[in-house]
Amino acid sequence: SYVLSQPPSVSVAPGQTARLSCGGDYIGGKSVHWYQQKPGQAPVLIVYDDSDRPSGIPERFSGSKSGNTATLTITWVEVGDEADYYCQAWASTSGRSGVFGGGTKLTVL
Amino acid sequence: EVQLLESGGGLVQPGGSLRLSCEASGFTFSAYAMSWVRQAPGKGLEWVSAISGRDGSTYDADSVKGRFTISRDNSKNTLYLEVNSLRADDTAVYYCVKGGSGYIWGSYAESWGQGTLVTVSS
Q: Given a cut of 80, is residue B48 above it in pLDDT?
């Protein structure tokens, strides 16, 4: 089955830039989406189709892809950005499947 | 404003059944793919089932295939998930999700409900 790999944790100081990676085979040919989930809350879509932002999502959040890795970049990190972040895509190995990465816990020091 | 209100969760014994519902408002329900995504306690997200807004085609994760059935009633703006033969590892918060288009393939979860908890335990 298709796997999206995310580092379990990333730490960054306020005001710095956080880069969260999401690796997967042939990810370059897939649309990758990103979600933010704060404790006790439902996830929120923050980037879709690799690099588009829904309305209301700050420009500090951006998505990109290179090779077999998609990246969520958060500039000027704020304490309020501390959350779990999940990448997601659809895969076609052994049938179609909706796949989430395991998630990255972003800690703002 | 998109609103998704789930109901139907609860405590059920292994092997039991439930019917989850999701009442949708604030958008043209029939035009969009809808899905259920679950999250076990302290764990990550899993895309469980989806139903197209174009042709009614469905998707089920391998982990639930043959046990869960997704359906929709466009006249009632309601999404359903029949869950049968429940196991302990089905214990999770089940989120109702609105897709970004009518298609399942390539879809993203544009809007989320607050979730309904299903606990499978004897």
A: yes
Say how far residue B76 (Cα) sits from the centre of its chain: 16
Q: What is the mean pLDDT of residues A46-55?
A: 97
Rounded to the nearest angstrom, the minimum Cα separation between B42 and chain A is 10
**How many Å lie between the alpha carbon of B74 and the closest alpha carbon of chain A?**
24
Determine the Cα–Cα distance for residues A21 and A4; give it in Å rounded to an integer.
10
| Position A94 pLDDT exceeds 70 | no
Torsion of CA A73, A30, A23, A65, to 10 degrees: -40
The size of chain B, in residues, is 122
Using the predicted structure, report yes or no on whether residue A95 has a pLDDT greater than 70.
no
Neighbours of B9 (CB within 10 A): 18
Q: Which tokens in the block code for residue A79?
A: 């304490």
Neighbours of B61 (CB within 10 A): 19
Q: How many CB atoms lie within 10 A of CB A89?
A: 24
Residues of B with CB under 8 A from a CB of A: 35, 44-47, 50, 59, 61-62, 95, 100, 104-115
CA B10 to chain centroid: 15
Contacts of B75 (CB under 8 A, 6+ apart): none
Instruction: Note the helical H segments in chain A.
Output: none
Is residue B21 over pLDDT 90?
yes
| Angle (nearest 5°) at CA B49 between B43 and B50 | 130
> Around A6, how many Cα atoms within 13 Å sit in the side-chain half-sphere?
28
Query: Which tokens belong to A88?
Result: 């997601």
